[in-house]
Amino acid sequence: MVVDGAAPEDSGRAPGAGRSTMTGAPLRAIPEATVARLASYLHVLSGRRRDMAESAVSAVISSEELAQWSGVNSAKLRKDLSYLGSRGIPGVGYDVATLLDALESALGAREIYPVAIVGIGHLGSALAGHRGFSGRGFPVRALLDADSGRIGQRVAGVIVTDVRETVAVCRDAGVVIGVIATPQHAAQQVADVLLTAGVRSILNFSPGTLVVPDDVEVRQVDLALELHMLAFHELRRGGSPARWEALQQ
Amino acid sequence: MVVDGAAPEDSGRAPGAGRSTMTGAPLRAIPEATVARLASYLHVLSGRRRDMAESAVSAVISSEELAQWSGVNSAKLRKDLSYLGSRGIPGVGYDVATLLDALESALGAREIYPVAIVGIGHLGSALAGHRGFSGRGFPVRALLDADSGRIGQRVAGVIVTDVRETVAVCRDAGVVIGVIATPQHAAQQVADVLLTAGVRSILNFSPGTLVVPDDVEVRQVDLALELHMLAFHELRRGGSPARWEALQQ
DNA sequence: TAGATTGTTAATCGATTAACAATC
DNA sequence: TAGATTGTTAATCGATTAACAATC
């Protein structure tokens, strides 16, 4: 938000030019918007591969087909894939296995990124048990909270630790991604502690802007903001609930 | 996405030109990115107003100050506000009350948008009790689930209903926003039912693309995608956990 | 070869930002 | 008036897309 998440972000981020893959192929800098879509292609493609695992169905897919599955324009998809340097076959399409490999490699999707969640309320607990984490290379290695009533409890198999021990716990567990699910008033303080622990990637579910150094990436998931966007859409459509009820009958 | 976040969206959305406010002032079409930031300004500004409620502090704020609070460039902020037609005072700044009024009006933030949540697992339950909803004009009026073990239970003060009654329940409750928190395999089916119930705004926490008509707005909140974006950032920085531990000592 | 689809170019579109005349 | 800040212009930047030569 695009979103966007679609939260306001510091847009002047350096695009990290001149990288290269493990295979040594040089890459152009990949735009943020493209990275988000690459992740989406990866997800769609792994899902589809599972579906057609049994049948010996074509291990090749066209940009048009993948584009439709992903809900994007096929020209945009080809442009996105061109950043990977991964070669499709003109007149044929993309080899699914090769493409998956290139996507995983480009996104670092084969690495493990240990996660800490701070703020183990309703939302934090739900996140701790969420498949999106442990299932896919983001094991939850630490849960932290300030409430003595919650400290010591086991949530999704992990013991909740006192937030004052964040730095030690995160370093011990090799945490590289911090998730903030605290009330807003605590968020900046928690972010500061995570920074001290060496965390440079933060997923923030608390509303409001975090102040962090330039080399720290913050992804904002703002529920209230999403709802306001939908509200704006409702307003724009000009449909009141009452009017809709009438129309639907 | 963020965005928000930043999920791939059908970009060819009609920008809804030629609206007008309740005061009759004609408005240019407001870009999506601007709408997201307007919502953010509204949030920041209401928070700050609460803080300075007691003190008779300046009821005026400059674009520079609000921009810093919101983490954006002040030129961008002024451009954003210019879409509201709300007049600041050159040499002085913006009257806070007037600005809040204009923001609320433009975003439809004074209306009530009843919400239904489908899928009352860990995440759905957490959302049902979340302040972001009931607190700010988005009352949760219906909870729906397919699991007979959950149907009939009370979550955050609302009884969970059988998902097969979605259409009737949503119409009765005047639901205008549907939240999907089901497993992915059920998401499209749930979306279809919500459409039948007249819902035209959907907040989707399930990964994967929903196919919906053009006049339906879908905001995607994709946890796995956010994590992949952060993973990419980690990869780009080239820091392995081990390396970080060494650096931090 | 004929047919199909890629990768890339170039045009278009939209969003960001510095700068400054207008204004209080 | 002098100082400050707005609203808007114009330049820049980046992202999207149609179109098509290159390629299998």
Description:
2 copies of one chain form a homodimer. The first copy, chain A, is α/β, with parallel strands linked by helices and 249 residues long. Chain A has 10 helices and 10 strands. In chain A, the strands form 2 sheets. Chain A has a 7-stranded mixed sheet, sandwiched between helices. In chain A, strand 6 and strand 7 (158-162) form a beta hairpin. In chain A, helix 1 packs across helix 2, helix 1 (32-51) crosses helix 4 and helix 2 crosses helix 3 (74-82). Chain A is globular and about 65 Å long. At the A-B interface, strand 1, helix 1, helix 5, strand 9 and strand 10 of A face strand 1, helix 1, helix 5, strand 9 and strand 10 of B. The structure holds a DNA duplex (24 and 24 nucleotides).
Defining key terms:
homodimer, 249 residues, alpha/beta, two-stranded antiparallel ribbon, 10 helices, disordered N terminus, DNA-binding
Number of strands of chain A: 10
Give the largest chain-chain interface (CB within 8 Å). A-B, 94 and 94 residues
Beta-strand content bin of chain A: 5-15%
Q: Main β-sheet of chain A: number of strands, strand sense, barrel status? A: 7 strands, mixed
* Distance separating the two termini of chain A: 35 Å
**Backbone CA Rg of chain A:** 21 Å
Low-confidence stretches of chain A: 1-26, 240-249
The DSSP helix count of chain A reads: 10
The SS-based structural class of chain A is: alpha/beta
Strand order of the largest sheet of chain A: 6-7-5-4-8-9-10
Oligomer: homodimer
Question: Judging from the principal axes of the Cα atoms, what is the shape of chain A?
Answer: globular
